[in-house]
Amino acid sequence: MTVLIVGGSGFLGAELVRQAAVAGHPTAATYATRRPRSIPGVQWHALDLRDPARVEAVMAEVRPRVVINASSGMADWAVTAEGPVRLAMAAAKSGSRLVHVSSDAVFSGTRVHYDESCLPDPLTPYGAAKAAAETGILLVQPDAVVARTSLIIGDGRSVHERTVRELATGARAGVLFTDDVRCPVHVTDLATALIELASGESNGIHHLGGSDALSRHELGMLIARRDGLDGSRLPAGLRADSTLPGPLDVRLDSRATQRRLRTTLRGGHQFLMPTP
Fold first, then answer.
1. In the chain, what is the straight-line distance between the N-terminal and C-terminal CA atoms, in Å?
2. What value, to the nearest 5°, has the Cα angle with vertex 112 and ends 13 and 144?
3. For 201-253, what is each residue's pLDDT tens digit?
4. Are the CB atoms for 67 and 99 separated by under 8 Å?
5. Under DSSP, is residue 177 helix (H, G, I), strand (E, B) or coil?
6. Model pTM score
7. Are strands 176-177 and 236-237 parallel, antiparallel or unpaired?
8. Distance in angstroms (rounded) separating the CA atoms of residues 190 and 12
9. Sign of CA dihedral 96, 263, 132, 201
């Protein structure tokens, strides 16, 4: 199957590109500003999701069987909310299967545990944009997959891991919150699960979080242990005492999706074990 990875230059997108190419799928990927380095067998296309004509042009040129949208526009409504709906419209027109990566930011944390039946109730502009994209995509293309995930970790390359290293070495100021809880997932597991969903016949909402609920501070301690850093140097604090908006405790219940997958979504205690 021909696969188009939208947002292929990002952290998750790059892993999706790598896995799709290794699996032998004809692969195309997009970038927003800077073209990534060449990868054998991968065609790169510049794409601004705010530009409907460009979305149509890339889809027409690639003619993908599957589109995986791993793009990230943060709180930019035109990119994060409207862009994926444009992509869904183009995918529906071309008969392409769409897998859209969403976020646990669509939830407020009021009920703590969230399975796929829970309705979004976001607290932040980013969460609202993600929730709007989910609604629009499933209206345009009801057989699409919307995959919500959590903090993405990956062998030292994620923003969370860089933050821990900088805090532990004194390169930056700040704290890791002990009351801000998520279900971190390894980028390799997440990408594998997304490709598995793309290759199957599932549709609708799926949760792809790791099996362990961890606070930002607990996650930081596990990263520090794996990397041989002094965890006692990681400052702790309460998000509830800060001015940062957003939910506190959001735990994706991914058990229903996990039962359908061959891919195991490991928890942080497992994938952050120190290498012997």
1. 38
2. 40
3. 999 999 999 999 999 999 999 999 999 999 999 999 999 999 999 999 999 99
4. yes
5. strand
6. 0.96
7. parallel
8. 8
9. positive
